[in-house]
Amino acid sequence: MVENNVELADSFIRAMACAALSPGLRSILVFDIEFEVLQVAAQLLKEMLEVSENQHVEQVNVGWVEDEDTLWGNFILDSDTQKLRWQPGLMTRDQSNLTLLVIPDLTQLSLAASRSCVMLIGADVSHLERHGQHEYWQPNICWLASCKRSESGQVSPHLLDRFALRLSKWRKSPKIDRVAKIDTWIRNGTLSNQSFETTLLPEDISNYLKNATKKWTQITSEAKNRISAYIQATTEIYSYYPRREIALARLAVANARLNNTRFVKEDDVDTSADILGLDIIETHKLSTEKGITQKTISLTENLEFDIEEDETETVLNLGESYSDESSDQNITYNSDSSETLSSISLPSPKEPYPEDKEPINREANSLRLPLPRYKPTIFTRGSIVGVERTKLLQDLAWVNTVLEAAKFQRIRHQNCQTENSKFQILSTDLRRYRRIPLPEQMLILLLDYTCLRGCNWEEALLPYLKWAYVERASIAIVQVGWADASNKLQAEIVTARSLLVRRINAALEPKPGKATPLAHGLDIVLRTLRSYMQHGRGSVVLSRLVILSDGRGNVPLDASYRGKILRVVNREGIEDALQIAQKISVLNNVETIFLNPQPQQCADLPLILASALGAQKIVIVSKREVAKT
Amino acid sequence: MGISNPDSVGKTLKNSCGKTENKSEGIQILPYTLIVGQEQQKLAIELAYIAEAIGGVLLSGQRGTGKSTIARAFTCMMYGCLPVTLPINATEDRIVGGWKIDELMEGRPVKQEGLLMKADGKILYIDEVNLLDDHIVNIILDVTSTGVLVVQRDNRDDDPVNIRFTLVGTMNPNEGSLRPQLLDRFGLMVNVEAETDSDKRAEILQTVLDFDEAKFHLKQGKLSPFLEKGRNQDRNYKIYLDNAKKLFNRIEIPKQIIKSCVVLANEFNVEGNRCDYILALATRAYAAIRYAHMNDLSNINKLEAIAADLEKVAPLVIQHRRPEFLETGRVLWSQEDKQKVAEILSNG
Which domains, from first to last, does chain A contain? Predict the structure, then answer.
């Protein structure tokens, strides 16, 4: 089902083998990997861990909807004994055996799971203090997570920092035979993703791992200097965090153990840096052919594995572990004579620490439990993050309530002293779901960037932004005439759960474009309002629509949808805008405010548009007037 | 309906402090004396041990700077066990106390003491303290401010119990700050930064790898000279700190130093009334450490705190009480602040 081209020369495979050897590296984050390939990687890692730890390894997948009881455990009713018993959670199960915990998409992890990861990954000790349970143990989990590099800004850096090994897309991933897989699914009648019938781990890698587990390797001072050089070089690009330096050192040690060498050398550090995606630093003599010869004792050669007897150093094939580009360079540009070069950094397409660079797209303090800032009218919506005591009968967590009451049944029956007493639930047993509050109010801001020059628009917007912050309202910014728009004839929308998301800040930067697709912007406003307030289980009950425009739309709605202008444009852009504005004006529970920038030309247009919207009109004072006062 | 014996969570270690369980099996903590650098963190936690009335230490700073390691290693060294730890997802029954659920299900109400009670006279450690649920923060605040634990929940109505513990919290300020009330319960705060000195960093790296190697050998049933050496050093260091603790009550603080504590608190416009008092306590504890270094105290008539002691502890006490910190959450202790302290003390 999987075409097996697994070899240790593949840097991805080598990295996983290193993680299997070194517990300090057992938190792996893979960027931009497809789910199916991740499953193959997980299976391979599982097999490697089983070899290195000589025990069964259980694989557990963590989805995005996991509450704390699922993760840490709770009481359940045992169907056999008809008694309540403690059921460990996903993260507290069977600590005597190693667990491989796979997180398919780190950006989709629930708040409870993210907090649990921060508590567990890389920790010396883990503590369970829940529901009468008091335990502590050494976490015995290998973590394998993935996320898109471009979406890493959605994840807390505090959580990302826990992942020691950063791997890029598995370039030489085994090809999955879909035909065979579908055939298996049909035969089994199930869509199991863990249907690997054969072992993926080749015997030679298994042998290398077995031998490497028996021996430790010492690090040389040259290797330590090399690590320092890498950290020095990377701090010019990334921030310095001690865990990154330690991860590089651990990876170098693991590589040396895999190579069956007695000491960690500079080459091991280079290989490790390449695996992590750091730019390779060339500081020493590049004696090309000699260098390659030294590195290319193939894995396929028959090597003796008896470490106790053979203490001689064996260097494995590291040449192929470099990226394709670098090996090409080696072959193409080999010179006959050796040459001493100064320090050169080769550009690397990999970004091991994107969190240092990617724009932040998460709320501030994203790992904290949400604070209820107002009394919500909708109790039964929002993701569940746990349960809490309640005196109200809304949104009861029935199972938790019954389980709570069950603890006291014997005592209550003894107190009642009646036979055949019924199951008693008292008000103190009541538990309700604790949910992330859904925003019930929304601020929609239509910003025409082409009319901002000279007007004091920031000050005019401030009260509405403050309102959105205080009310924890969700926010949508419709960008009209923005310079960075993907199509200048179209408006765009940026939405966020709250004002605290950083991309909102970026959307407020005044970057005027050349066209004003006002009608398209208003059309987006109309559709957004309908979607959030009228469709499905939308939670928004009140919207505040703020429009800042001079009313001079110059792109007809039709042209915006086509993405091109087919004929000469007169007033169509304005007429279309007015028509849509009238549709917006009849929507219920929408409070519309029009901010008039008082344009020099066509000064009546904003007033006409505001009237069509049925909006409250507010005049924006120009900067010149502000300066005068 | 009843309850069977709860499954234990794998190979766990049951409760530690003061009990007889094998505390070292499976869990290896780097010995305190082997931790390289981070002298301010170590100083703060040692001061809080010597002068319990300081109340607590907050270790706040960059990721991966050994905050949790220091907190655990110190407790292991001083108390011979891991600290009583309050995880951020602890439920209320485990914090204030509840019932033993397996017994309860059999109709036998047996009380189960909570973490606050368990920490009495010791350290209560909270990792990621800024991620604690607000409701839990309120409980801790209530107990730390009154020194009394009242359990009135789940049909329990216990008599109030006096408890006192040293609160040690670690946090990464990027994930949010603490409420001023909770912040005030931490007598000392360290703004932890990664070591920048390359020699020191190399030493840290070597220690981490040595510790990895030690765990590798222990797993194979071999002894680790590295850990043995560290534990022997820890034993000696514990004696030294216990001596300092004994000396604490013998240290006299001249009135001039107390006055300087009050002036410092005023000059830095700190919030609350506890700053000057904590300054005096920490100064006294620092002096105790200084005297404990000396082999022979028989020639010294009077053990006395000096201005230099106060100068050393001032940033630990003042920085998190300044209005700038409470507003921005950013710790700023500049060269100017240092000079300001020196000037106040020299004028005093």
Answer: 11-211 (3.40.50.300), 215-356 (no CATH), 385-435 (no CATH), 441-628 (3.40.50.410)
